[in-house]
Amino acid sequence: MTQKPLFSLSPGDTLSELRDTYFPPYITLAHTFNAPAGWGISHRVLKQFQLQYVLSGCAQYTIEGKSFLTQKGDLLFHRPGERHSVSTIPGEPYVCLSLVFHFGQSAFPMDELLPGANDLGNFACHEVERKLTSLVIHYRQPGLVHQLQAQTLLMELLLMFNRLAGERSVQEASAAQRNNFTRLVLAKNHIIEHFAKEMMIKDLEAITGFSGDYLIVQFKKTFGMTPIQYQIHLRVEKAKELAVHEGLTPSEVAQRVGYRDIHTFGKMFKKKTGTSLSQFCATLFTEDWDPEI
């Protein structure tokens, strides 16, 4: 009986068969394919992620009912469980690079990295094409070093797709959206300049022209934190900097980052870092530190 190819299996069923691979992402297929005339795939469903890059020619690709006429440089991506079909165009060549991978049996938040995307863009003569080609070359060679190179290139590509998608979103944003982003940056800069002072949402409202609730929602959506959370983040990082570079006591550090009560500062610092400032400094200095907090 012919053994099924690794790319067609469930992630857990591939792990025992992989060689020189000890951590995710696990690559189960990386090759270039020159399609014969009339070649096609109909309604296939994989249990792993797939990237399909067109090296030359063209083909009709369908993912969950969405059709894409893919040509040289086009890169498509689909997730586990997404039904897809591929058909060549009569009289046209089709040479593609296929990459199938997974992250083991643990769920990976791919939608956070590549939200909703199937068509990742066209990368003819782009660094993406070079990295994909290098990945295949390394994957096809035996040995730990080559497998590590292939895995590293895959993670670099995923991060690159995320960055490029973000850049496209900014470029495609409306003038109003760009204006909103500019005003949020002004609010962020205000927090940076006044991080040691009491946070007043009304000050940020005056800077941005937004209502308080809208400001908080949009700030978190843009920067990943609410204004208050961002201020606390700045205070923690500044406290570390003061302790390391200026050798201040915990009380002095607390005052410099906006806390009159050292115990309030100590609780905040430990909540955010998992350790007290004294313990943090003890990992950096050999001399005794006053365990004030």
Automatic annotation (TrEMBL):
Keywords: Cytoplasm, DNA-binding, Transcription, Transcription regulation. Residues 185-283 form the HTH araC/xylS-type domain. Transmembrane segments: none annotated. The keyword Transcription applies. This is AraC family transcriptional regulator. GO terms for molecular function: DNA-binding transcription factor activity; sequence-specific DNA binding. The lineage of its organism: Bacteria, Bacillati, Bacillota, Bacilli, Bacillales.
